[in-house]
Amino acid sequence: MFAGSIVAMVTPFKDGKVDWESLEGLVEFHVKNGTHGIVPCGTTGESATLSHQEHEDVIKAVVKAVKKRVPVIAGTGSNSTEEAVRLTREAEKSGADGALLISPYYNRPTQEGIYQHYKKVAGSVGIPLIVYNIPGRTGSKIEPETLARLSEIKNIAGVKEATGSVDQAIDVIRLANPRFAVYSGEDSLTFSLMALGGKGVISTVANVAPKEMSELAQACLKGDWEKGRNLQLKLVPLIRAVFIETNPIPIKTALSLMGKCRGDLRLPLTPMSEGNLKKLKQAMTDFGLI
Questions:
Q1: Which pLDDT value is given to residue 1?
Q2: 260 an active-site residue?
Q3: Under a CB-based contact definition with an 8 Å cutoff, are residues 286 and 254 in contact?
Q4: Which among 60, 115, 118, 160 is annotated as catalytic?
Q5: Cα separation of 35 and 74, whole Å?
Q6: Mean per-residue pLDDT of the chain
Q7: 3 close to 200: Cβ distance less than 8 angstroms
């Protein structure tokens, strides 16, 4: 359904509000550099501090700016099932090609609760859904057996695996319906997961290195493993630098250093420490970004 390098795009702010001009500029930057899909309003897009109106407006603006050139997979997750249904329906009405939904956070539902949550959302819309498995943020992991059950639901198309476990990804690929796509949710594991049969990555580092991440994913899809391996190794120092503090603090700072948008964040996120900022700048210089 979706494949390649899919960027989890930042939401640029200016004077406390969404910077619509910079948002459009970032979309163009990605389309021109080979990004295969765009996720607005994900974790990297600071969805947790967007108002409901901003959330809907950002998705609409990205769909409009993309002009059908690449798929738009809207972040529509919530810890409330009814809210997730509402957000996903709105994204569908806005023209999004799919939706990415984090598993319910804070509630810590059982595996059955997680299954019923996604089943309810899937039954409420026609667009394909990608499950987002990131226990470090949600407090609960979606087990491979649960993902295998979800893979039998027609419009649940895949999972963004951000458990950090290759074993988890192996079990999902082994147990799930063959049409169910696995996307790396860890930039540093993109090559590894694609070598096992993954279909791509939903990437943070692609915000600043879209061309290289696109080439990495494309090489793996074509079976050019030597090129893919070399690109993964080249990207690793930059990837580590953009996760030196809580995402999206460093990646947004990096974009501001490149002149792509301001580095404004919303509380409780705060600017980088001087020591980590120095490390980020060095990694960006070494990569040739600044």
A1: 77
A2: no
A3: no
A4: 160
A5: 15
A6: 97
A7: yes
Owning domain of residue 142:
4-225
Residue 232 domain-assigned (yes or no): no
List the strands of the sheet with 98-102, edge to edge.
37-39, 4-8, 200-203, 181-184, 156-161, 129-133, 98-102, 73-75
State what percent of residues in the chain have pLDDT above 70: 100
pLDDT score for 32: 98
* Structural Rg of the chain based on CA atoms: 18
From residue 232, how far is each of 48, 85, 219, 235 by CA, in Å? 30, 36, 11, 5
CATH number, position 179: 3.20.20.70
**3-state percent helix, strand, coil for the chain, nearest multiple of 5:** 50, 15, 40
Q: pLDDT tens-digit profile of 182-202?
A: 999 999 999 999 999 999 999
Return the H-helix or E-strand segment holding 277. helix 274-287
Q: What CA–CA distance (Å, rounded) separates 265 from 14?
A: 9
**Counted domains in the chain:** 1
Please check whether residue 263 lies inside any domain of the structure: no
Q: Is residue 244 part of a domain?
A: no
Average pLDDT over residues 68-77: 98
pLDDT tens digits for range 36-55: 999 999 999 999 999 999 99
* Residue 282 within any structural domain of the chain: no
pLDDT score recorded for residue 19: 98
Cα distance between residue 285 and residue 263, in whole Å: 18
141 in catalytic set: no
Find the mean pLDDT for residues 146-164.
97
- The reported pTM is 0.96
**Which run of H or E residues covers position 249?**
helix 249-257
Catalytically annotated residue among 115, 118, 132, 183: 132
